[in-house]
Amino acid sequence: MNGIKKKYKGLDPLPPDFVRIHAPLAFVVEEDCIGCDRCIPICFFDALVMVDKPEHKYKRVALVDLANCTGCGLCFEACPTDAFIWVPDKSNGGPISRSASAMTNGII
Amino acid sequence: MELSSPLIVASGPASHDVRQIRIAEEKGFGAVVLKTVCSAKYDEMRYWPRPRYKLLDWDKQIAGRSKQFTLYSYEQGYSGRLEDYWKFVEICKKKTKIPIIGSAFAGVPEDWVDLASHIEQSGADAVELDISSPHRPGSLEFETTFVAAIKAVVGAVKIPVLAKLALGPDVLSQCLIAQDCGAAAVTLCNRLRGIDIDIESHRPILHGYYGGVGGPWAKYYNFGYVAEAAGKLKIQISATGGVMTSEDVIKYVLLGASTVQILSVIMVNGWDSASTINSGILSYLNRKNLKSLDEIRGNAVDHLTSPEEIVRWSGESKKGPRNEWD
Ligand SMILES: Cc1cc2nc3c(=O)[nH]c(=O)nc-3n(C[C@H](O)[C@H](O)[C@H](O)COP(=O)(O)O)c2cc1C
Ligand code: SF4
Ligand code: SF4
Known about the structure:
Chain A is 9% helix and 20% strand. Chain A is mostly beta strands.
């Protein structure tokens, strides 16, 4: 969210600055999570789970399983409090380069 | 192929992994079209940009209840290797009872045949060819990428072949060609290619290139294409595009669709949207005293009038309040 938080704005139009160097992964800022469960069904890669957190105001929070996250961005749109941010996956090698032809064809 | 429900999961992120197919079965889907696998030539398509989805004009306060949004995306093929896909089909067949429709995308006819044959050998009940030609540059390729591909696949496999077409002015003629080539059904229609721009940076959003666009609004175009095709085709129509509610499904059936494929609604409202849609269809059937949707399939097409029969009246007279004539 590049540090600026507006009310319920969802996903930024552009990817995070580090996208060319590291793969972006979603991450839940726990203080902002209200434990509403809305992000859970929207993740098709089983990368989101609710975990108990007794010391948290809402007792439970969403957690991204970083190993499963494909960085699709949908959870950002589902979250009513904009609790999601991008974090770089530093374990992932460089981006996959693609030929120019792949960009003109294909399923969208 | 007999389906328990006309509702099918459309090819995409909701049919990319085995567990999802089990959920689809549990939630009452009649069949599943698996995420499209691309031939080796398009290997790059297994890799996706991040992020790759954005909900445009999306009202977070009312979430999926919003009927006005666009799902913008750039997600191409199945993300595993070809061997993984064959195994994916096999396991889906072993673990579920609903019909499994494989989906393929390739360039030259040999590659289409290779994918379709592997899909058949892996046990799929049918194969859908994501042959939406407007995604490819140049209509000159139509003969090789469309006609030859469908013919070759139909000649090579025994399972039914569905041709998934793109929206466009020539949908009807493409449907007729697909029928002539031996397709068992046409899937109408894939999403459109579009683009959105960030006016602060002047850049196209997300990955910086065109994306797929669709949303609840897309059904109105597609209703028209389905109606036109239903009046002319002998083969089945699987409708896809913009379904949010049971009413949308009923409309597609009234316009002649045999099955209806959905995806965006699952993405924004979750898997339970299938149960909601199915129970909506049931209560409609009860209210209308019908045993099944088969009884009303295509009825709305029979009510289509012709331009000659439209009741017409004169427009505004020359002396009307908006005119300056004398
Ligand atoms: C994120 C996303 C990915 C998709 N991927 C594929 C695909 O791989 N192959 C395909 O034939 N259609 C694909 N589609 C199109 C869908 O199968 C479906 O036909 C389309 O989204 C219209 O239905 P809907 O309005 O219910 O979403 C995709 C759609 C979306 C939104
Ligand atoms: S970015 Fe996509 S894959 Fe990752 S947690 Fe969010 S919804 Fe799941
Ligand atoms: S949608 Fe947002 S607030 Fe709700 S559980 Fe998920 S992260 Fe927490």
